[in-house]
Automatic annotation (TrEMBL):
SUPFAM superfamilies given in the database record: C-terminal effector domain of the bipartite response regulators, P-loop containing nucleoside triphosphate hydrolases, TPR-like
Positions of the Bacterial transcriptional activator domain: 104-249
Family per record: Belongs to the AfsR/DnrI/RedD regulatory family.
Annotated organism of origin: Microtetraspora glauca
InterPro entries: AAA+_ATPase, AfsR-DnrI-RedD_regulator, Apaf_helical, BTAD, NB-ARC, OmpR/PhoB-type_DNA-bd, P-loop_NTPase, Sig_transdc_resp-reg_C-effctor
Keyword Cell cycle assigned: no
Top-level taxonomic group: Bacteria
Keywords for this protein: DNA-binding, Repeat, Transcription, Transcription regulation
Database matches in CDD domains: BTAD
Domain AAA+ ATPase: start-end pairs: 297-431
Signal peptide: none
Name used for this protein in its record: BTAD domain-containing putative transcriptional regulator
Length: 1018
């Protein structure tokens, strides 16, 4: 049966090889009724089922009748009666036509066009012209011309019409190469007239006239075309037409048909975008008109990059631009390097020798003899050889000419570094601007201008891969009723993304699959499991843990996948190598993992790498001492021999995105305990150190999702505890108390002594920070006792430190010194250097509060000296501030100010609001000590704004006390009274030692009057 849609819809009941015979009968499928429209719609999607929902919209628009689905079933019944019961197939909520490619004229048109393109690429212009002519003969009018009101068919008809124009251009190219100028002129005249703005037809008409000896008519044609373009568009003709006109005026001999071998290059791509630097590199290497002095080497350029990055397009564009440098012509051959059976060098040489009309090789000739014949055929000619899609150096080496007047461009997914004298061009994905430009050229500039952000998002979702961007653009071009945001929504779902990135013979999934099929079994497994690591970069140690392999074997696999262009190197080398997967490769590999890997194997792989991450985090962490103790005991797991000692201090900075992604993956895989444990480890090790609250929130969100899925009180307690720690480090103390309180209740209900003990510690620490020391002491005392019974040395150390601070604030100095001394020792016993340092600093603060400044300086200087030996800049902020304040008390104001400047800068950079306000307040005190009340007030006001924003009454009161001193210096004692009274009320309520220090403080600033309240120092 023959289905004809390249014109009004027609069906006949016979035909040979898809070509109608004279005796064929037309099948009556009715006039312009709905069954006929349904058949046309099904034929427009002949290679895939048409969903009923789509058919309904196409047939009735936005307002289908309630009986639409039933009507479609009735039309299907009628079509089956006419066409046969097996022609219309039913699927789940969809229908399709069972018709072969040869039975549908549009599909046959595509096949013939493809054969013509292949012949044109190989330089067989006669066969190309025949195939193009046969394809064009299938057209009988406008496709789907009897359904002008159906929007999807109108768009499909437009797409087919554009393909027809492209085939007409290529047929004319083949006919011109064969010298059939006179017979071609009438057809080209009609085409140039019908498509007056298509400069390609006009150029071909001019060339045909010129070669037919009608030079004057050719020049007149140019003037006519120029006049039309200027009148209609206000534009001059394009570069191709202008250059052709210039050459005709000069009677350039190159306008005549080639006397030597014609070019075998495929057509250049009209919407080629960017790559200017790459083109310059290729041309610089190959464009010398004569061989370089002192060398006989053939210049070779290897263009390499991942599948779909545009290597072939770049090579063809460069070859067309290099034509003048290679007057002997150009050879092109596709070596099928990414297919299961690459083209053997012998067969490639046979094809090239046929193109060159060289002497046939003797029977039984070997590879060396064939290569010699090829080099002999090229001797004395300046020809460019394009070897596209090479598999290996061994495949390419016999195809390199021996004559140094020739040049070679090789494209390959691999670098082929073994080729001698080869220049390397490494292709990258498109930038956002280049990707949007490609979208604009294919899908239209107006649409990109209407939705610029959505256009950029399409490029991002395509990961800048030219093949993917081109497919996305083609989908938009054939669906002008889509908004770009519609496509963004389709691409955003990773499970559907590769389905969306396929149109006609362009298919991202197929491109990636070519590389995947070329891998060994071990390499495939590695790529599948690596897809579990997400889109951020990952290091070799993570791959080793993921695969359960030794580090050296994991590194080998990673480097092999890099060579195959399925991984990208981010930085580093050897054991420190960091890589990432291109997003679309990762999506494909994840598909294969879901199809091939059993769920238990995936879970085991994620468990291995999560456990390794826990070990590495614990081993490399500096552990911020002001962070809270763990409230969740990590599960006991065996390690996998990670090389902790090989990692430097920058490890966390490099791994932070990866580790957060791993928490999310572990939670998705159902590894709840590990997800919570890694989240808390990161809180203590990474996020609190750098105040990376965005990453901490991501990790907690993942843990929270796992908790909800598990419906576990233990999981809920862990999440509440984590939120308490996060809010504490964000200086959101009221929220921190609320979350810790919820966690405490849950841990008590569960009977989890470890969680309860350390949640008590966290809750007590928050009370202590808020100046609620009477509430903090019993919580921390109970926590200390429980932690000691549980053998949790770190929890004991944290509780002792909190108790020491609380006692100091309440003026119980002897007890404060005792607890802080024990805290320093406890931190030392568990190997917690920063904790020991902060406890030493705390001892110095007790002596400073007592007025023993010599011993205060001794202890604070020791803390700062030790902190300088660590990489923790955050810790140095606090030790530096403490020492600077001692220096202010001893009159060393200039030294203190020099120490405070970097402290303020670092605290602000790390997002530590408490530390920033503390530094601002201390700088204000320095200005007071130096007799500069104006600058002092400026800094104190900034500190006050932060304290008030944090709702931290005690530190706000301390800052008001200093502001009162500045007011006293500026405007006299009376101006300070209200400020001091406000501070005094807070000191009295909280019971801190400053409540009894007001008299000494007022006298220091020359104020002897009575505030008649109570008493203000710090």
């Amino acid at each position: 049966m023959e289905f004809r849609i390249l014109g009004p819809l027609a069906v006949s009941d016979g035909g040979t090889n898809g070509v109608p015979d004279r005796d064929d009968r037309d099948v009556d499928i009715g006039g312009a009724g709905k069954p006929r429209l349904l058949l046309a719609l099904l034929l427009s999607r002949a290679r895939s089922p048409a969903p009923i929902e789509w058919l309904t919209g196409a047939m009735w628009g936005d307002h289908p009748p309630p009986s639409a689905r039933r009507n479609i079933q009735l039309y299907v019944y009628r079509l089956r009666r006419v066409l046969g019961p097996d022609r219309i197939l039913g699927h789940r909520d969809a229908y399709s036509v069972d018709a072969s490619d040869e039975e549908v004229d549009a599909l046959r048109f595509r096949r013939l066009t493809g054969e013509g393109d292949a012949a044109l690429a190989e330089g067989d212009h006669r066969r190309a012209a025949e195939r193009f002519k046969e394809a064009l003969a299938l057209w009988r009018g406008e496709p789907y011309g009897d359904f002008p009101e159906c929007v999807p068919l109108a768009f499909e008809a437009h797409r087919l019409a554009q393909l027809r124009i492209a085939v007409q251009e290529r047929r004319a190219e083949a006919e011109l190469a064969l010298g059939r100028c006179t017979t071609l002129i009438p057809d080209l005249s009609e085409l140039a007239s019908r498509h007056s703005l298509n400069e390609r037809f006009s150029a071909q008409l001019m060339l045909a006239l010129y070669r037919a000896g009608r030079r004057g008519e050719a020049l007149e044609t140019f003037q006519r075309i120029r006049g039309e373009l200027v009148a209609e568009l206000g534009l001059e003709p394009g570069a191709e037409l202008r250059e052709l006109h210039r050459r005709m005026l000069a009677d350039d001999v190159r306008l005549q048909p080639h006397s030597g071998p014609p070019s075998r290059l495929p057509p250049d791509i009209g919407d080629f975008v960017g790559r200017d630097d790459d083109l310059i590199l290729i041309e610089k290497h190959l464009s010398a008109r004569e061989p370089r002095a002192g060398t006989s080497a053939v210049p070779v350029v290897v263009v390499s990059g991942q599948g779909g990055v545009g290597k072939s397009a770049l090579a063809v564009r460069a070859a067309h631009r290099l034509r003048q440098s290679y007057p002997g012509g150009a050879l092109y051959i596709r070596l099928r390097g990414t297919e299961e059976q690459p083209l053997p060098p012998m067969e490639a040489l046979e094809r090239l020798l046929r193109v060159l009309d060289a002497d046939a090789p003797a029977d039984g000739a070997g590879l060396d003899e064939m290569a010699g014949l090829f080099r002999q055929a090229l001797h004395g000619r300046r020809m460019l050889v394009v070897l596209d899609d090479a598999a290996s150096v061994e495949q390419v080496r016999p195809l390199i000419p021996g004559d140094h007047g020739c040049g070679v461009i090789v494209t390959s997914r691999r670098r082929l570094a073994g080729l001698p004298s080869a220049g390397q061009v490494e292709m990258r994905v498109l930038s956002e601007a280049e990707g949007v430009r490609l979208l604009s050229r294919v899908a239209g500039h107006e649409r990109m201008r209407a939705e610029p952000d959505e256009a950029a998002e399409v490029v991002r979702l395509c990961a800048g891969l030219p093949l993917a961007v081109r497919i996305a653009a083609a989908r938009l071009a054939t669906r002008p009723y889509w908004a770009i945001s519609d496509l963004v929504g389709r691409l955003a779902d990773e499970r559907r993304r590769l389905d969306e990135l396929a149109v006609d013979d362009l298919d991202v999934r197929a491109s990636v699959a070519l590389g995947y099929r070329g891998l060994t079994a071990d390499q495939r497994r590695a790529l599948r499991l690596i897809s579990l690591l997400g889109s951020s970069g990952f290091a070799t140690w993570a791959v080793a843990a993921l695969l359960g392999l030794p580090s050296d074997r994991a590194l080998e696999l990673v480097e092999e996948l890099v060579d195959h262009r399925l991984l990208e190197v981010v930085c580093g080398r050897g054991p420190d190598l960091r890589c990432r997967t291109h997003d679309l490769v990762r999506v494909y590999a994840a598909e294969r993992a879901a199809a091939v890997e059993p769920p238990e194997r995936i879970a085991a792989a994620v468990e291995r790498v999560t456990v390794a991450s826990l070990r590495m985090t614990g081993a490399m962490s500096a552990r911020l001492p002001l962070a809270l103790p763990r409230t969740h005991r990590p599960p006991e797991q065996a390690g996998h021999g990670e090389p902790e000692a090989a990692l430097g201090p920058g490890w966390f900075a490099a791994e932070e995105e990866f580790l957060v992604g791993l928490v999310e993956r572990a939670a998705q895989t159902g590894l709840d305990e590990l997800a919570y444990a890694l989240t808390e480890a990161l809180v203590h090790a990474l996020f609190a150190v750098g105040n990376r609250f965005d990453l901490w929130n991501r990790a907690l969100d993942a843990a929270h999702a796992a908790a909800k899925a598990a419906r576990s009180h233990r999981a809920e307690a862990a999440v509440e505890s984590g939120l308490g720690q996060l809010r504490y480090c964000e200086d959101r103390f009221a929220d921190a108390k609320r979350h810790f309180g919820r966690a405490l209740l849950l841990y008590r209900e569960l009977g989890d002594a470890y969680g309860e003990a350390n949640t008590l510690n966290g809750l007590g620490t928050v009370h202590k920070e808020l100046g609620e020391h009477r509430e903090a002491i019993p919580l921390l005392t109970r926590s200390r006792r429980m932690c000691r019974e549980l053998g949790d040395g770190e929890g004991v150390a944290h509780a002792l430190y909190g108790l020491g601070v609380a006692f100091r604030e309440l003026g119980a100095d002897r007890r404060a010194l005792g607890r802080l001394g024990l805290a320093a020792r406890a931190f030392r016993l568990v190997g917690h250097q920063p904790g020991e340092i902060i406890a030493v600093r705390g001892i110095g603060l007790v002596f400073r509060a007592r007025g023993d400044l010599a011993r205060a300086e001794e202890w604070c200087a020791e803390a700062h000296r030790r902190a300088a030996g660590l990489t923790d800049r955050h810790l140095r902020c606090y030790t530096g501030q403490a020492l600077a304040k001692v220096w202010l008390r001893t009159g060393r104001t200039a030294e203190a100010e020099r120490l405070l400047a970097p402290t303020l800068e670092t605290s602000a950079e790390l997002g530590d609001r408490f530390g920033t306000a503390l530094a601002l307040r201390t700088i204000g005190e320095a200005h007071l000590a130096a007799g500069r009340p104006g600058p002092a007030l400026d800094h104190l006001h900034l500190a006050m704004a932060t304290w008030e924003d944090m709702e931290h009454d005690l530190w706000a009161a301390r800052t008001r006390r200093d502001m009162g001193a500045a007011r006293a210096l500026l405007d006299g004692c009376a101006a300070a009274h209200d400020v001091w009274r406000s501070a005094l009320r807070v000191f009295t309520r909280t019971g801190v030692r400053e409540a009894g220090e007001l008299t000494a403080w007022r006298r220091r600033w020359g104020c002897e009057c009575d505030l008649s309240d109570a008493h203000v120092e710090r």
